[in-house]
Design brief:
alpha+beta, Nuclear Transport Factor 2, Chain: A, four-stranded antiparallel β-sheet, 5 helices
């Protein structure tokens, strides 16, 4: 008897209101996720940078060089001079992706700003000496093939 309540019909205007509300909620959720910091908009580009830095920090320099997808003018020796254990940015044992920056003017890629550290784990709240060893690097990820490079000069 308690669960035998009469079935109520929904008025067509209420059904339409529920559908419109659901569609608007889905659109708002998508827009929020698209523009929210740490968003999904440049997930593939940031994932390429993470994959590259994971290989560098693991010491898999040959694999990291493949992920970089270098031009003919950037030899493996040049790569090691930059990223190797004794290179300009090395040794890289941990990293933190700071942010991404989209260049204006129809740019064909994305700047991903990362901090690298010779210490493991990354010194988020470490001493001043550990913080001073971190280096901020701007990496450019091309949209078409997810190749990495240092950013082109600003126009």
């Amino acid at each position: 008897m308690l669960f035998d309540a009469p079935q109520q019909e929904l008025h067509p205007s209420k059904v339409r209101r529920y559908i419109i509300t659901a569609v608007v909620a889905v659109i708002l959720a998508f827009v929020f996720l698209w523009f929210w910091p740490g968003n999904l908009r440049y997930y593939k580009e940031k994932d390429t940078v993470r994959l590259f830095l994971n290989e560098v920090s693991a010491g898999n320099m040959q694999r990291a060089y493949q992920i970089w997808k270098p031009s003919a003018s950037y030899s493996f020796k040049d790569f090691l001079d930059d990223w190797g254990p004794n290179g300009y940015y090395g040794p890289v044992r941990s990293y933190h992706v700071e942010r991404e920056v989209r260049r204006g003017g129809g740019s064909n890629g994305l700047d991903v700003i990362v901090e690298v550290s010779p210490d493991k784990p990354f010194p988020f709240d470490g001493s001043a000496a550990e913080q001073n060893k971190t280096k901020e690097i701007d990496l450019f990820v091309r949209f078409s093939d997810k190749s990495l490079s240092f950013p082109p000069p600003a126009l």
